[in-house]
Amino acid sequence: MTKTLYFDCETGGTDSKTCALLQLAAIIDVDGKPVDKFCSYVRPFPGDIVEDEALAVNGLKREDLAGFPEPRKVYAEFSVMLDRHVSKFNRADKLFPAGHNVRYDREVLEAFARRCGDVYLGSFVSWKFVDSLTLLTLFEWMGGPALADYKLGTCCDHYGVKIEKAHDALADVTATRELIIKLAGKVKLEN
After folding, report:
1. Which domain holds residue 114?
2. End-to-end CA distance of the chain
3. Cβ neighbours, 10 Å, residue 160
């Protein structure tokens, strides 16, 4: 059984260790079928970096942030969802993290988990990951198309995937999931 955690983090900056997590969205697939979904805005922790440029990209105002749910509450709800699908004490039962430039999002999620007092995110999520950016790089290296840039919107446009509202975590993760499924369909495995 393959379990995948497609997820996206909208942040207050580009430094995964110090920026605020502003929105977290995830879709859990089991054997290629979506079985659970999560999406929440997140109030920044005191001292988290929130840059004006990041707010503009996300279509947010500083005043919005105070009304977002408390971060530990958001993480507790997210953990409950993970716990429904993974036996955290079973080393073989893990979710494959998946996304677009997912290494960054994973760093953000791990930093967020630590700020919430949880150092055991690895109990739910494998260290191995699936990344649409890595797949696209591999395809280019193999002689496939070289895109103008590798932003999610550009990649989705090239492969005919629609994004409802760019820089909304749920819209981005939904599009990324579809993009990864399309890209994976182009890969042939040898038996």
Report:
1. 3-184
2. 18
3. 9
CA dihedral 16, 117, 79, 110 (to 10 degrees): 20
Give the three-state DSSP class for 153: helix
pLDDT digits (tens, 9 = 90+) for 91-111: 999 999 999 999 999 999 999
Please report, for the domain that includes residue 120, its CATH number.
3.30.420.10
Selection from 85, 70, 71, 92 nearest residue 27 by Cα: 85
Query: What would the two tokens of residue 100 be?
Result: 């677009």
Tell me the C-alpha to C-alpha distance, in Å, between residue 41 and each of 10, 24, 73, 102, 106.
9, 6, 11, 19, 17
In single-letter form, the type of residue at position 21 comes to L
Rounded Cα distance between 6 and 184, Å, is 14
Contact (Cβ atoms closer than 8 angstroms) between residue 19 and residue 13: yes
Q: Is residue 189 part of a domain?
A: no
**pTM of the entire predicted model:** 0.93
Number of domains in the chain: 1
- To which residue do tokens 């716990």 refer? 83
